[in-house]
Structures are given as structure tokens and as C-alpha cells.
Design brief:
alpha+beta; 2 domains; five-stranded antiparallel sheet; 4 helices; 5 strands; elongated
């Protein structure tokens, strides 16, 4: 009768249903194996203690997480303070050694430029002679000096400015 309505032989319907049962059986076996693996992992996880010890472990770990969050916040505050303080520290350096006088050798005189982040700071010029050492300081504001700079001082300033 089915053959008349659908035009399909009952043999094909039986083969199709058998194939469907076979596929369902294979899927059932796969799911049973997966469930067995999950149960095994669960038993290993729960082994060695009761629920109370598991709860204690979780509480301990959560406390550690809270401590790490607090330590991280403290580190961030400290880093911000360090960066704020670094703006006023000397960060750029230029040094030029030279002979101030012809009779002296060894380049014992020098010009040292020290600048902060805003290119403000000082140039220290030490001139060495036979009679002694003379030291001068010139203030630098925004990369410029109010006082005329010597050639060596200008070189030290340019080194510090990376010009």
C-alpha cells in the first residue's frame, strides 16, 4: 500500500530505517564514552577531599585573587607617581670634553648639559688650567640659554637635545 502512494519500495524504507538506527547507535556509543570520560575527570577532581575542603580551596584562591587585584592597584599608583616624579629628573645628557688652553693636554675641561623632559636644566662648564679649575653653570629653559653659550657648551646642548 505504501508502495502505491509514495512509489517507493518497502525494501528501501527498511534499509533507510536500519541505517538511521545504526547512526543513532553509533552516536549513543560516542555519548556514552564521553560521559564516562567526564565522570572519570569529575571523580579525579573530587578525590582527596570532601566538599568542605574544595570550598576552602576555592575561598583561599579567591582571597589570593583579591590580594593580587589590590597589589596591582598599588603598583599602578606607584608607577604613576614615578612617572610624575621623572618629569622633573634629568633625562637628557650631553658631554663634550675639550682643551680649554693650548698649554694643557688630555682634554681635562668639559661641558656637561643635563635636561629634563621639558628641555630645561643646566650646563656645567669646567675649565681646567695650570692654576686651577674654574666651573660655571648656565641655566637652560625650553632648550635655550639666556646667556651666550660657548662652542663646547652649544655642542653639549645639541647632544642632549639630539640635534
Amino acid at each position: 500500500m505504501i508502495e502505491q502512494y509514495l512509489g517507493i519500495s518497502t525494501d528501501y524504507i527498511v534499509i533507510g530505517l536500519a541505517a538511521l538506527v545504526l547512526i543513532m547507535t553509533i552516536l549513543l556509543i560516542v555519548f556514552i564514552v564521553q560521559m564516562h570520560k567526564l565522570k572519570k575527570r569529575y571523580k579525579i577532581f573530587m578525590q582527596g577531599g570532601d566538599a568542605k575542603s574544595l570550598e576552602d580551596t576555592l575561598i583561599y584562591r579567591l582571597e589570593q585573587v583579591d590580594e593580587l587585584i589590590e597589589a596591582n592597584a598599588s603598583n599602578e599608583r606607584n608607577i604613576d607617581a614615578i612617572f610624575k616624579n621623572m618629569k622633573d629628573c634629568f633625562q637628557k645628557i650631553g658631554l663634550v670634553k675639550y682643551d680649554a688652553f693650548n698649554e694643557m693636554g688630555g682634554k681635562l675641561s668639559f661641558s656637561l648639559c643635563m635636561l629634563n623632559e621639558k628641555n630645561s636644566g643646566y650646563i656645567i662648564n669646567a675649565m681646567h688650567s695650570r692654576e686651577g679649575c674654574y666651573t660655571y653653570v648656565k641655566e637652560i629653559i625650553d632648550g635655550n640659554s639666556i646667556i651666550q653659550l660657548a662652542e663646547e657648551e652649544e655642542q653639549a646642548l645639541n647632544q642632549a637635545l639630539n640635534v
